[in-house]
UniProtKB/TrEMBL annotation:
Cofactor (UniProt): [4Fe-4S] cluster
Name of the molecule in the record: Probable dual-specificity RNA methyltransferase RlmN
NCBIfam families with a match to the protein in the record: rRNA_mod_RlmN
Lineage: Bacteria, Pseudomonadati, Planctomycetota, Candidatus Brocadiia, Candidatus Brocadiales
Main localisation: cytoplasm
Gene3D superfamilies from the UniProt entry: 1.10.150.530, Aldolase class I
């Protein structure tokens, strides 16, 4: 059989970029029945295949043809580090030679994968290592999806991914189309089959993206990295807030809830001497008054390049108690990855520093 195709063979994108309908259309264009698409997806998402020649129910000559047209994976794992908590961090090589990170977090029956959406980040948040080298580019859908696949293939057979959070390197809503497509693949029965309510997209506050997300018809969770009760403090921590504004962000969050009826989570990093005082807690309670939301409080992870440090245990407990006294739902998160540089971008930055140092040595 002669397959009909017209494609730039130098690109060889992975099939993880494709939805079921796209893969079915591609199979049809190659003169193959549409059921081949589900066969391929089953091999990738259920059986952990990483190459076409592992898909034993496909004809051998079709396997060879596919290998000249697409790849199954376009990324690879170069390093895995772990802690006694069960947290594991994966350093992932992408197609252009860059590296990104994803993190596996275990807590009780929950097995969560924290996924990156960009190579680098343009938001320049003053507590996050992701933005220090700047933004390189958006990740493709496949590069996003494959992070979870690498983790899935790494897990023991009896363990499965229960939750996905788009909270790694990059601002998810600045790569909107690829992130939403990846989320749909995570949710799809033919993909990961993870319930929409177990998928979370986190944003620093891209208002247009929040409004678009409200109308996607996806029952996924929205988390907003707030980290401050007012513009004075938030702009110091998150420079992009100067264009966003806390009041505008909270207004968009209220609109999101009114449209979706889904609770919103607000992420709040406690930074000693910056946003963790009693006055800050009172201001935050007033800001969120009447909102149906959850507040996830986390002491900041120290990053060498920044001077921020976490508050004392007493200060943290007082801050949380004051919010609860105002009727807000508060969850104090544990730090599980500081020993492996698991805060966003730290492992990638560590690798880049090593490369930069070696380059300088070679020049000398």
């Amino acid at each position: 059989m002669q397959w009909r195709y017209a494609m730039d063979k130098t690109k060889l994108l992975s099939i993880t970029n494709m939805s079921l309908s796209e893969l079915e259309a591609w199979c049809t264009s190659l003169g193959e029945p549409t059921y081949r698409a589900k066969q391929m997806l089953s091999w990738v998402y259920d059986k952990g295949a990483m190459a076409f020649d592992q898909m034993s129910n496909l004809p051998k000559n079709f396997q060879k043809h596919l290998a000249g047209q697409r790849r199954v994976f376009q990324t690879s794992i170069s390093d895995i580090t772990q802690t006694a908590y069960g947290t594991e961090k994966f350093l992932v090589h992408v197609s252009d030679g860059n590296v990104i990170e994803c993190v596996l977090l275990r807590e009780g029956k929950r097995t969560t994968v924290c996924i990156s959406t960009q190579v680098g980040c343009a938001m320049a948040c003053q507590f996050c290592a992701s933005g220090l080298p700047g933004l390189e580019r958006n990740l493709t859908t496949g590069e996003i999806v494959e992070q979870a696949l690498h983790v899935k293939n790494h897990l023991p057979r009896e363990e499965r991914i229960t939750n996905i959070v788009f909270m790694g390197i990059g601002e998810p809503l600045m790569n909107y189309d690829n992130v939403i497509k990846a989320a749909r693949i995570m949710n799809a029965e033919w993909g990961f089959g993870i319930g929409a309510r177990h998928i979370t997209i986190s944003t620093v506050g891209i208002i247009d993206g929040i409004r678009r997300l409200a109308h996607e018809g996806l029952q996924i969770n929205l988390a907003i990295s707030l980290h401050a009760p007012d513009d004075r403090i938030r702009s110091k921590i998150i420079p992009s807030n100067k264009k966003i504004g806390v009041k505008n962000l909270i207004a968009a969050a209220r609109e999101y809830f009114e449209t979706t009826r889904r609770d919103i989570s607000f992420e709040y990093l406690l930074i000693d001497g910056v946003n963790a005082s009693r006055q800050d807690a009172e201001s935050l309670a007033r800001l969120l008054k009447g909102m149906q939301c959850n507040i996830n409080v986390l002491p900041v992870n120290p990053v060498e390049e920044f001077h921020w440090r976490p508050p004392s245990r007493e200060t943290i407990e007082t801050f949380c108690r004051m919010l609860e006294n105002h009727g807000l739902v508060v969850t104090l998160r544990k730090k599980k990855g500081s020993h492996i540089n698991a805060a966003c971008g730290q492992l990638r930055l560590q690798r880049q520093k090593f490369l930069w140092k070696n380059q300088e040595h070679c020049v000398k």
